[in-house]
């Protein structure tokens, strides 16, 4: 049944292909890394499924990637014996981009190649990168466990469409043939390919073989022994730290995270004792485009004794650390764990606490040793971290210690002041951490509520992120000092006033008694009470909400949401 059909790419694939070919050309060799990364993922998936169905190995249990080429025909082929794809899989994975949020992502593109290539990097366009160097790509694949006549051939020139055809494929897995563009024959070369594999794919856990050049084989003159893998072919996180270079860590990050940018930092630890595991966790340098998408994947890649179990194991990290990527390899969990089992497993809680502590400690250290780098982190992920106090009560003080704020003392709207900085600068007699919330920096910085604090030289946190009011609500205090909204209730400013000011205040209250009474009667339906206040120094009057009432910013948000 050789039913051949031609289908159109989804619009977003067309746009992305076009953009990628142009903006990534200067870095074209990375296509090989992407294809080998996919081959490795496919082998991981096969090994996992074979745990419960050994027949999937079809008497070929040695997983591997083979890279061959034909100089005359100018083709390059990457073949794996992993899980393979059915016809439906092919249509779904190689004809669309499944990630939600793709349309918003594309609308952010500017047409400026450099900026766009960075954005594309975060998006991770994997398979399609083959079209940077190929003008035709042929994928032949068969799903493990299906019969040989269930193969599929996918073919495309990377323009608007692709064709599909049923084929016979004896071996399971996927074979991708690139018809190299004019001038790209450098990739049909054994030496070049071997170097690229060493550079980008050394960390891949299964062996990668590269065909020898014809003349190399001749010159050896004798029957060559079994070919050797070009890469280390060992799960990277099982290797000693001292044996691993920065570049290896960075390449591994790109493989696990599907992010093309370099990570900001990483943590590689092996723990033996009550818990037995190895973790290799990364903090990205850039927030992914879908960080605020609830369905976006999060969590680590889980392995049990070197065997891949699942992607996005979100049980091991709380949502406020959803930007962390990496691998957890446990020696304690059983090979047949499932998401359901993980939800009830007590060990998972211990592992989770250990990983959280590791991430928070690393951030603390970074903040101390390399404030500039920490500032990069904060600008990308600060808003996510602010979900911490609400989600992780036990660690709320530790998480809050990592927060940075814009204040009435700091310059501009950059968030650079820590709570420790704030406390160190507190005035004598000051017991609270004062803050004001609002829509944007200009608005809060100009608020009349700040007049008194400015006059007295008391610093006030200027909170303008969406999560802020909610965050302070859950945090409530830090280092024993309560948070106080300067627009709410009594401010305890008395303790900060000197004696002459207290005297002045008393006299004012006396002398304005009549006025206050008149105002209270006139505004009876509008306000709860009228008071003489030391809050203001230039403005004549301001509105204040009760200590336990909703803040103005929150109230406007609720109103906007129709509540
Ligand atoms: P990603 O790897 O980030 O998912 P890719 O564009 O690299 O994105 O690949 C898209 C999808 O195509 C993969 O998720 C996988 O389902 C499928 N795929 C790609 N290459 C292979 C392969 N060699 N074997 C099996 N499936 C593959
Ligand atoms: Mg990929």
TrEMBL record:
Subcellular location: Cytoplasm
Pfam assignment, any one: HSP90
ATP-binding as UniProt keyword: yes
Domain of life: Bacteria
InterPro entries: HATPase_C_sf, HATPase_dom, Heat_shock_protein_90_CS, HSP90_C, Hsp90_fam, Hsp90_N, Ribosomal_Su5_D2-typ_SF
Region annotated Disordered, chain positions: 213-232
Quaternary structure and partners: Homodimer.
Protein name: Chaperone protein HtpG
Source organism (scientific name): Thalassolituus maritimus
């Amino acid at each position: 049944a050789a039913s051949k059909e031609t289908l159109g790419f989804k619009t977003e694939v067309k746009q992305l292909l076009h953009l990628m070919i142009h903006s990534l050309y200067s870095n074209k060799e990375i296509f090989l890394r992407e294809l080998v990364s996919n081959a490795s993922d496919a082998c991981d998936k096969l090994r996992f499924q074979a745990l419960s169905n050994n027949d999937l190995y079809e008497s070929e249990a040695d997983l591997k990637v083979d890279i061959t080429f034909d100089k005359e025909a100018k083709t390059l082929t990457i073949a794996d014996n992993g899980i393979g794809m059915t016809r439906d899989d092919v249509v779904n994975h190689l004809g669309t981009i499944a990630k939600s949020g793709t349309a918003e992502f594309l609308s952010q593109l500017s047409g400026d190649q450099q900026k766009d290539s960075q954005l594309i990097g975060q998006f991770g366009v994997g398979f399609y990168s083959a079209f940077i160097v190929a003008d035709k790509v042929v994928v032949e694949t068969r799903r493990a466990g299906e019969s040989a006549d269930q193969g599929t051939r996918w073919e495309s020139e990377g323009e608007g469409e692709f064709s599909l055809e049923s084929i016979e494929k004896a071996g399971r897995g996927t074979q991708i043939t690139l018809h190299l563009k004019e001038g790209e024959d450098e990739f049909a070369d054994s030496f070049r390919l071997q170097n690229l594999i060493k550079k980008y794919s050394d960390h891949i856990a299964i062996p990668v073989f590269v065909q020898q050049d014809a003349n190399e084989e001749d010159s050896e003159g004798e029957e060559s022994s079994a070919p050797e893998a070009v890469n280390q072919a060992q799960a990277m996180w099982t290797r000693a730290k001292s044996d691993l270079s920065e570049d290896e860590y960075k390449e591994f990050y790109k493989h696990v995270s599907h992010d093309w940018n370099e990570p900001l930092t990483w943590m590689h630890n092996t723990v033996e004792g009550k818990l037995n595991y190895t973790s290799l966790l990364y903090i990205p340098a850039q927030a992914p485009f879908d960080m605020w998408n609830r369905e976006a994947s999060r969590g680590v890649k889980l392995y049990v004794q070197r065997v891949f179990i699942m992607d996005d194991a979100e049980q091991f990290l709380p949502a406020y650390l959803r930007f962390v990527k990496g691998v957890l390899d446990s020696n304690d969990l059983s090979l047949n764990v499932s998401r359901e089992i993980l939800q009830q497993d007590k060990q998972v809680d211990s592992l989770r606490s250990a990983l959280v502590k590791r991430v928070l400690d690393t951030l603390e250290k970074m903040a101390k040793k390399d404030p500039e780098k920490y500032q990069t982190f904060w600008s990308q992920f600060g808003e996510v971290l602010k979900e911490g106090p609400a989600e992780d009560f036990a660690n709320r003080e530790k998480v809050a210690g990592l927060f940075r704020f814009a204040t009435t003392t700091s310059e501009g709207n950059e968030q650079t002041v820590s709570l420790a900085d704030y406390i160190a600068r507190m005035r004598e007699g000051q017991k609270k951490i004062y803050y004001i919330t609002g829509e944007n920096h200009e608005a809060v910085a100009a608020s009349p509520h700040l007049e008194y604090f400015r006059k007295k030289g008391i610093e006030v946190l200027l909170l303008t992120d969406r999560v802020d009011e909610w965050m302070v609500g859950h945090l409530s205090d830090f280092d024993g000092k309560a948070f106080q909204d300067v627009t709410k209730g009594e401010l305890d400013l008395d303790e900060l006033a000197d004696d002459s000011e207290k005297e002045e205040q008393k006299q004012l209250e006396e002398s304005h008694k009549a006025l206050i009474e008149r105002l209270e009667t006139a505004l009876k339906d509008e306000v709860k009470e009228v008071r003489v206040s030391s809050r203001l120094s230039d403005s004549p009057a301001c509105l204040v909400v009760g200590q336990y009432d909703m803040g103005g910013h929150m109230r406007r948000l609720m109103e906007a949401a129709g509540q």
